[in-house]
Each structure stands twice: as structure tokens, then as C-alpha cells.
Amino acid sequence: MSRILQSTPSPFDPQARLLAFDELPSTNTWALGNLVGLRNGDVVWTRRQLSGRGRLDRKWCSVSNGSLTFSVVLRDKRLIPFGPNLGQLAACALLETLSEQGVDGRLKWPNDVMVGDRKIAGILVEQAGSDGDFVVGVGLNVNLSGADLAGFALDRPAISLQLATGRRVDEEGVLACLLVAFSRQVSGVMAHGLVQMRDVWERHDWLAGREVRVMGNGQVLEGRYLGIDEAGRLRIRLASGIEEECWTGDVERVLVS
Question: Which of 10, 108, 112, 179 is the most buried (most CB within 10 A)?
């Protein structure tokens, strides 16, 4: 069951809509399957997501009224050069939204958001064709309890806004704040490039100064994390002294004995 909330305009485009569902298998999957009828800036939001997907085909667990799960449809050819960075822009918007709630977040390449050493949000960006059509899916743990998180088969520690703040949080208020912040990030990158995003990333980088292991494209790289470059790629200095840049992969801190 769905409804179009005309009273809640999308900040991305005056003609865009917020489409709210009681439940969906996946907001990204629904948006990609119905793209022909969607406009730039449309937001697909569900109260309960049954088969959420994260990066690297990971499952994103959610419960009704505990998780904020939505997808933003972006249909603008000017975004084609920044397709690989849309997840990073969404992560910066999440960081701003956490700050509004009094929570100190950090950014983990390529586009995870951390509170302390626990993950609070994940992002999945998918492109439809080559015409500048993107779907940016966001999953944010909002009012999940410790018992909720313990009931999920998670591959890494997680946290929610409720656990971080000690209080229940207004889910719709968080969504509104997050959409405005993401809209500013998207407008900023089209006007000024990646300068602002890189500055935010440098100041809130969860991996800064660490030894890391990057896994992807059939290889494993270990070395000193050097931040992100002008294109948003991860930079790493290997033990050999060679510096590499990575577009994709899974990265973790390495404990140095």
C-alpha cells in the first residue's frame, strides 16, 4: 500500500514527490523497477523494508518504526561525472543530520557512517543505464534498541540514534532534515565540484592515520591510509612505498602489534 505525500515536497525539485509505503521488499528495487514513472528528486520511503540490500550484496536489516529506509531518485545528466561520489555525498548529509541530533559521527570510506566504532547507516547507489539516472538508497538505524540489534545476524557492531542519544527520535523529522542536507550536497557538487565533500571527509574521517586492509577486485592491499584523493578514491601507501588509489572495495582498520 502506498500514498503520495503532497504536503511534504522534496527539496530536490519543485515537482518531486515523497512516496510513502507501509512496506516494500526494497526501496531501491522498487524505484529501479518503476523508474519510467518517477521524477528527479522523488523519494521512495517505506516504514518496513523486508529485503533491504547494502553494498557487496550485504543484507540491510530493518524493523517497522525502528529503521529509516528510503531511496532518492536523481535524474540529471549533470550528475554523471559524480556518479561514483553520490554515496559519499549522502554520507556527508547523514553526518550533518546526526550532528543536528547531537551525535558525533564519522565517515568510513567508501560511504559508511560510524558512531564510535559502530555502524549507524549504510548507503547503496545504483545507476540505471547511462543517462544520468541514479537511485541512492539509505538505511539509518533510528529507534532500534539493543535487543533489536542483537536479534540481527550482523557482520559488524551497530548502533542506532536511540542508543546514541538515550531517547526516541522523530523518524519523519530526521527524514526531512536528511533530505534537505542531501539536496544541499548534490547542489554543491554540481556548482563547485568535490571540494566541499572532500573537506568534510578530511575532518571526520574514521580511518585517518590508520593502517588499513582494502579488499576488492580480487586483491587485498594493506598499508597506511592516506585519505581520499580529488576524485574521492581511497589512497593507501603499501609497505613497499608504492601508493595506490582504489575506487571500490571493503576497508577495515588493521591493528598494529
Answer: 179
C-alpha span between 137 and 70 (Å, rounded): 6
| Helices and strands per DSSP (H, E), number in the chain | 6, 15
Q: Extract the C-alpha cell encoding 75.
A: 535524474
Distance CA 142, CA 162 (A): 6
Cell (9 digits) for 50: 523486508
| Domain harbouring 152, CATH code | 3.30.930.10
Q: Structural domain tally of the chain?
A: 2
Same domain, 108 and 192: yes
Strand ranges (E), 76-203: 106-108, 112-115, 118-128, 133-141
Q: Are 112 and 119 in contact (CB under 8 A)?
A: yes
Burial class (CB in 10 A: 0-12, 13-18, 19+), 63: middle
Q: What is the dihedral of CA 63, 176, 180, 250, to 10 degrees?
A: -10
Q: pLDDT digit string (tens) for 149-202?
A: 887 766 678 999 999 999 999 999 999 999 999 999 999 999 999 999 999 999
3-state secondary structure of 236: strand
Give this prediction's pTM.
0.91
Convert the pLDDT of each residue in 45-104 to its tens digit: 998 887 655 444 555 556 666 889 999 999 999 999 999 999 999 999 999 999 999 999
Alpha-carbon gap, residue 109 to 163, rounded angstroms: 23
Max Cα separation, the chain? 58
